[in-house]
Design brief:
The protein has about 170 residues and is an alpha+beta fold. The chain is built from 2 helices and 9 strands. It has helices spanning about 5-40, 160-165, and strands spanning about 55-70, 85-95, 95-100, 105-110, 115-120, 120-125, 125, 135-140, 145-150. The protein has a 7-stranded antiparallel beta sheet, with helices on one face. Strands 6-7 form a two-stranded antiparallel sheet. The longest helix has about 40 residues, at about 5-40. It starts with a helix and ends with a helix. The model has no long low-confidence stretch (mean pLDDT about 85).
Length: about 170
């Protein structure tokens, strides 16, 4: 390899590294701006209750897929830690639904805020081949509606959730 080719290769590598760094920075800036826009719309999440009754639907293990602004299945909420996928356990109580997430704070969905529980093929950028995602539509204290997506380890458990919602 001659010196001219080596220098040209190093210049091209440097230009590509700078271009990649600029693209990553632009993506991070977009994520932060989206969070700022949504912060006012989302407001504060409902507080966790002090006590709850006996579970109506037993804990269901799976994956918290994320929350979206209803009815747009791909408009992911990025405020706080609502936009991150994580392992979770979903439990239904008479007072509401608890989403206990590993590595993130729990989400409490009060019973009076729940509008619908259904299965979906896609939510928050996660698409399945069948009705593989349990979607819970609920209203925040700010008035905004969210769809919270959950993919159970055993899809057969969805029947209990849908039966209880009916």
């Amino acid at each position: 390899m001659n010196t001219g080719t080596l220098v040209g290769s190093l210049v091209l590598a440097a230009v590509l590294a700078v271009l990649i760094a600029v693209l990553i920075q632009a993506m991070m800036r977009g994520w932060r701006r989206r969070a700022e826009r949504q912060a006012a719309l989302i407001g504060t999440l409902p507080p966790l209750p002090d006590t709850v009754g006996k579970a109506i639907v037993a804990p269901t293990k799976g994956l918290y897929v994320g929350s979206t602004l209803a009815p747009r299945w791909n408009d992911r909420v990025v405020v706080g830690d609502l936009g991150f996928r994580t392992k979770a356990v979903l439990t239904r109580y008479p007072e509401g639904i608890m989403v206990q997430r590993s590595g993130a704070g729990p989400i409490w969905i009060p019973d009076e805020s729940i509008a619908a529980i259904r299965t979906e093929r896609a939510i928050a950028g996660k698409a399945m081949t069948h009705e593989g995602i349990l979607a819970i539509r609920w209203r925040l204290p700010s008035g905004a509606e969210l769809d919270t997506g959950f993919r159970a380890d055993d899809r057969g458990e969805y029947a209990r959730w849908l039966e209880e919602a009916a």
